What does this fold into?
Amino acid sequence: MGNINIDNAYTIAHSPDADDIFMYYAIKFGWITTPYKLYNLALDIETLNLACFEARYDISAISFALYPFICNHYVLLQTGMSFGEQYGPKLIKKKGAKLKRNFKVALSGKYTTNAMIFRLTYPDAYPVYMNFLEIEEGVLNGVVDAGVLIHESILNFSHELEVEAFIWDMWQDLAKEQLPLPLGGMALRRSIPLNRAIVLEKILTKAIQIGLRYKPLLSKMLLDNHLVRVNAQELDTYLQLYANEHSHTMSDIQIQALEKLYAIGYNAGFYPSLLKLQDHFIPKEYTNIRYS
It folds into this structure.
């Protein structure tokens, strides 16, 4: 499914992991009043990243590391973010294994944030990109020497595996200061009229706020409808990490962390130019001007 070519209808594409499901489904369950018809689909995050090069979806979840590559097609929303605070993806290997300098590693996609941070930290490793759901099995079967687990996989993986390193620690070493770890966010097509873009961002923000306010009920509905891949305890733990009070409205420290990520990427040659985020948000002051 691509964009919905109907007046007042928009597609929201998100990943199938629990935090994205939680942040969207207050809309799906009809808890949010909206002037637009909103259709959703859930796809692997790297599939969404690649689709953004074609501006395939009106609103899409993205890896933050992708954004400089698509900034001419999308604005970055200041809602629907996942940051790590002393936690995040994990580099895992078989217990007792010794990794060589050029070890083969499974990553969840070329444009994911964890892949960028990993590649800067382990430039001699040989990356193999695969669906995040296949990474644990790839390490267990010896297809790769190690893998970076993301999403709910960080909570519960085989006892035959152990953590070699944390993306959080790699980020701290690169950033040289205490900043939250940028992981993923939401982007909106620039071709959407500005007044509608403002409303859509408010809808998504409110959906997260309402979801958090009624978290026990929403969590139960997600579990009862088999919309998440974890049990109740794991869901609660995961949401505390990635769908929390820091997810609905981007803060100054989060903006600082993102600009640090993009500066690191630019200095390392990942990006052709240095991004200033204030030029890529929806200009909310338009509302006051338009209705003054």
The mean pLDDT is 90. The domain at 90-175 is CATH 3.40.190.10 (D-Maltodextrin-Binding Protein; domain 2). The radius of gyration is 19 Å. The CA atoms of residues 177 and 213 lie 33 Å apart.
